[in-house]
Amino acid sequence: MSWLNEWKPEFKAEGNSRCVYEIEPTGESAKLKLTHSIERPDSKFIEAVSEGWPMVISNLKSLLETGNVALVYHRGHAD
Questions:
Q1: How confident is the model at residue 75 (pLDDT cuts 50, 70, 90)?
Q2: Which of 11, 15, 56, 61, by CA, is between 20 and 30 Å from 47?
Q3: How far apart are CA 36 and CA 51, in angstroms?
Q4: Domain map of the chain by residue range?
């Protein structure tokens, strides 16, 4: 998936990033691997989104297992 962040000008200036989801069966469960990258070294955008992906994946796991999300976090665009 190609991703262009448009809510912060400095992130938009870095250009498109790439987000890849890989799902691999492991017995009766599955392994989800997420890789978010950009061709720019030391990307501030990748640094910023890397902090949010663990919460997103954790909530996805909780939603799939229980029907509810565990964490609710709303970051304003000013953050």
A1: low
A2: 61
A3: 12
A4: 2-53
